[in-house]
Each structure stands twice: as C-alpha cells, then as structure tokens.
Amino acid sequence: MLQFSFWDILSNLLIATQWTIVLSLIAFFCGGIVGLVLLFMRTSRIAPLEWFTKIYIEFFQGTPLLMQLFLFFFGIALFGVEVSPWMAATLALTFWTSAFLTEIWRGCVEAIPKGQWEASSSLALSYIEQMRYVILPQASRIAVAPTVGFSVQVIKGTALASIIGFVELTKAGTMLNNATFRPFLVYSLVALIYFCLCFPLSWWAKKIEGRLNVAR
Amino acid sequence: MSLVSIRDVRKSFGPNEVLKGVSLDIAKGDAVAIIGRSGSGKSTLLRCINGLETYQSGSIVADGIEVAGANTNLRELRRHVGMVFQQFNLFPHLTAAENVMLAPTVVNKVSKAEARATAAEVLAKVGLSEKMDAYPSELSGGQQQRVAIARSLAMRPKVLLCDEITSALDPELVNEVLRVVEQLAREGMTLILVTHEMRFARDVGTKLVFMHHGKVHEEGAPKEVFAAPRTPELQQFVGQVG
Amino acid sequence: MSYKLQFAELLPYWNVLLYGLVFTIVLTIVSTVVGIAVGTAGAAARTFGPGWLGRIVAVYVELIRNTPFIVQLFFIFFGLPALGLKLSETTAAFLAMVINLGAYSTEIIRAGIEAVPKGHIEAGLSLAMSKWEVLRHIVLNQAFRKIYPALSSQIIIVMLGSAVVSQISAEDLTYAANYIASRNFRNFEVYLLVALAYLLLAMLTRSLLRALGRVIFKAR
C-alpha cells in the first residue's frame, strides 16, 4: 500500500485547490456578466422581462445548488450531448451565482434615491443611459461590499461540484481520505485551505462596508 | 447632611480632562440647576452620579452609597437615583404602562398588578392617564418625555437626574415637560437638572450651579446669581443665552 | 429531443419521497430552533459577555462562515470518530446544521443587538436593571424585530443547504431522490420533481415565517 506523508496529503490538496479557484473565478465572472444582463432586465419596467427574471431568481435561489448541479448534469445529457462534470458545474454555478448577484445589485440600485431617476429622465436620458451614467456609478459604490461578500459563497458553493465528480478541493479530500484513512487530518486541512481562501475576502468585505458606513 | 456629596471629582476621556475637581453638595429637597456651555462637563458630572460614567479621582456619595469603580453596588445605587435622558429612550416595543412597569417587576420583583397600579398613579401624575396603553411611536415628544419621567418615578427614587430633558423637544412641547418637573420640585423631590432653560432654572431651582471648563465656576441662589453674576464668564453666558 | 420525460415512473416511490420530505422538514425545524438558541447565546457573549468569551465565539463564527457546509459535515461525520466521537448519520446531520446556523445567526443577532440605541441600554441600567436583565427585556426584543427578515432568509438558505446531508446517507429529500434515481434511472425527472419540492418548501417557509413574524411582532 502506498504511504502518504503529511506533505503528500497537503501538496495533493493544494493541487486540487487550483481547480477550486479556477471554478470559482469562472463562476463568479460569468455569473457577474449574466447577473448584469438580468439586472437590466429586472429593472427595465418591461413586464415580460421582469417576470422572466423573477421566476429565474426564484428558481435558483429557492432550490438547493446541489439539485441544480444534478439537473444540469443529467438534463444536458438528455439532448444527447456528452456532459463532463466540469461543464455541468460551470453552468450550474454560473446561473446560481447570477441569480444572487442580480438580487444583491437590485437592492443597491433601489437604494439610489428616486430623485436621481427623475432628474436624469428629465434630462432626456434613455433608460440604458440613466443606468449607465447616473444609477450604476452610484450603485456600484455600495455594491462592492456585498459582492465581495458573496464571492465567499461562490467559493464554498464550488465544493458541491465534488458530488457530481469534479475533482476540486473537497473531492480531493474525499479521495485522499479513502486512500489514507486519516479523515481528521485530511478534513482539517481541507477546511483550513477553504478558510485561507475565504477569510481574506470576508474580512475585506467587512472592511469596505465599515468604511462606507463612516463615509455616510 | 447632604443627600448627594461630590468631592473633588476628576474625569478624563483619554488626554482630555472634562471634570477638573468638581465639588458639590446637594441636600434633600434641593432642585439644583446646572448650567454651562456644551463641553463644560455638566452632563458628564450627572452621568457620574449614577455610575454611567466612571471617574478617576475624588468621591461621589449618593444616598449613603459611595459611587466608585467596579465595586460599587450599582443596582442598589440606581434604585435610589433615577435618570431622565435628553433622547427619552423609551423602549419602543413596550407600551407606556409597560415601560413604567418594567423595572419594578424585573428589579423589585413587584407583582404585575401592583406594578400596573403604580404605573397608573405615576402616569396620572404626569398627566398621561389616558395614554397608558399607547406605544412610544404613538406619542408626541413631550408625551414620551413625560412617560420617561413617570418610568423613573415608579422606582420611587430619592434623587432624580435630568439630563437636558427638553433639548430634543419642539419648542411648543417644552412647557408641558417643565410643568411636570416644577410640580415634582414643589412636592419636595430632590432634583439635579442639567438645563438650557434659564428662566426655569431661575424660577424653580433652589440652587444654581454654573460650570465652566470642567469646574464649578459659580454657585448660589438662582435669583441672586442671575441678578448679579460675579464672574465675567457667567455674565457673558447669561448675556448670550438670556 | 428524442428523450421522453416519464414522471409516472416516480409514482411507486411516493413513500420514499414523503419520508425524505418529512426528514428535511424536521431537520430544518429542529436546527432552526436550536441554532437560533445557539446564535442568541453567541451574540450575547460577543456583545455583553467577557472579552475572552467573545473572542472564542468570534473564532467559531469565522471558522464556520468561511468553510463549506459539506466540509463541516464530513469533518463531523468522518473526522470526529478519529477522536473517538462516533455519530450516526442522522445525529451528524443535525449537529452540523445546528453548528452552521448557530454561527450565521450569531452574526445576524449580534448586528441586531448593536443596532439598539445605546441610550436604551443606559436607560435600562439607570432603572437599576442588571446587564442581563437589560439584554433580556430591552435589547433582544428590539434586536430580533430588526433582524427577523435576515434571519428568515438564513433559515431558508440553511434548509436548501441541508440537501448536502444526503452525502453522508442521512435520509433526507435529496437522499430519496438519489435512491430513486439509482433504481429507475429516471435521473432528470426525479431531480426536477425534487427541485420543485424544495422550491415549494422554500416559498412555503417564507410565507410561514412572514406570518409568524406578524404574530410575534404584532405590537406597534
């Protein structure tokens, strides 16, 4: 039987951590782009667009991320397309992230006083122009803290990709545990690595939020 | 013997000394009005008397209890020393009567029925019998402050500290609160009031204290002090405010 | 699409699904009640307790909030037995849920406590109430009123997150789905149905909590 030293375990976990980071980054950025589009639709005051986003958000916020992963994994296969865990995880996490970011950002947009909308529309700006030049520059200031805060949820969310067989940090932990039978050590290390990824972001989010409160 | 005795009290917030050796004696039945500019230390002095602030040196004895540091039996002290705040600080989740009943039931373990009877009595005293079951948000500022006074009275304090209790009120609501305080003074309640109401200080107070730069700058009978301020600082202050 | 969805093949398994559904509901209710109790104690310790206790609670909160629930679950179920603490799947699931919600609710309730105006605390103190009496009678009520919506959202998030307990074979709704899928291979149908069940559960929980909030905080 292969012997695993502490450093073997740690280095294997760190290699897998790269995939956690890559998956997090893709989910966060693609989710951000989709979320931005949804934000425009959600605040457009065009009924069908608003309804679509509402149902979309309700679904992705109201069902477990794990179910969403399963649905993408098995759902795409129905179209006769070969699905890799990688693809299913990327898609599910992107859509899941976009739903939450849309809601967070909508809150920030709604925090901007009505007068800003009225003033800019009285200057003959179109809806897109209002958003682009007046509302979003102000809303983005207050959106930074909760957005950074949510990135922590995305990193933690990628852990579920392990369940559909994508080898990232958590899956690597499970595999190493099966090989070494040292669950306490392995899962402590896994938790510690997640903590090192997430805590700086949490801390940063809290710091920005605090600074914003003082500024107001 | 004085009911509240303050001896050479010093207090600093960091490098900033706000009380620079304050001494004051308050007898039973006194209505002491403390006046002075903002930042002169008058509110801090008041907060030291019931232990909301600690001080570094000197001594305060209130109703026989030495107010000093961590060993003070604050609970016992505060049962005898009531306080009314500038911002009313009514508990928003409780009705007027419940605000008044809270401390008697929790601290003195009085029965609900008995506490409610007391509440009815003290709320009548401040002229709010018909508002017993109103929530603070349903009351005007003046009414809220009167409930706050009643809330303190329900503990039957020996001394009542009033920290600028009319400063947060709209001008037309000030008098209804002052009338209640005036009545208390007439009934012989010992009062220590930090106030900006000069006329009230003169007409109702039995003693006037002018604080300046963390010290008692001048004190005496209100009418005399106002008629003939001895120090230029008080002259100037009276000239500005009055 | 050549594939035909066949929900009828799920019918024979209705009792499995029902069992899972009940398990998920009970798991959510118990961990909500106990978790909020833990959170209240934690928040009280952080705001009104001694400094050393507050720091311990802060470490607990940050450790939980910055690691995935599934890792916490695996640590409890697979890791703790190495220390001699062997837990059943069900116990481990409940424990992990309570610990998780306990940390989040500590943070939420603490924010509520800190939002109570300092003057209210001073008013309570100057009425001769002790620190703990002030906390109990004046602070907590106001704090809970303020953070009730945030706490409600967190309960729903935790309920949805509980799907993960299926991974240690705790027999919740997701476990039922996995079980059925392994029998009849109608993966997509099963997961779609169960996803909708969760959605319904989330919406129901939200309305229920809102109604409950109206009853509890009816004053004013």
TrEMBL record, chain A:
Family annotation (InterPro entries): AA_ABC_transptr_permease_3TM, ArtM/GltK/GlnP/TcyL/YhdX-like, MetI-like, MetI-like_sf
Predominant location category: membrane
Transmembrane segment boundaries: 20-41, 62-80, 184-205
Keywords on record: Cell membrane, Membrane, Transmembrane, Transmembrane helix, Transport
GO MF term set: transmembrane transporter activity
ABC transmembrane type-1 domain: residues covered: 17-205
Protein name: Amino acid ABC transporter permease
Membrane-topology annotation of the record: Multi-pass membrane protein
Organism per entry: Bradyrhizobium retamae
Statement: the UniProt record of this protein carries the keyword Transmembrane: yes
GO BP: any one term: amino acid transport
Subcellular locations according to the entry: Cell inner membrane; Cell membrane
Family of this protein: Belongs to the binding-protein-dependent transport system permease family. HisMQ subfamily.
Any single GO CC term annotated in Swiss-Prot or TrEMBL for this entry: ATP-binding cassette (ABC) transporter complex
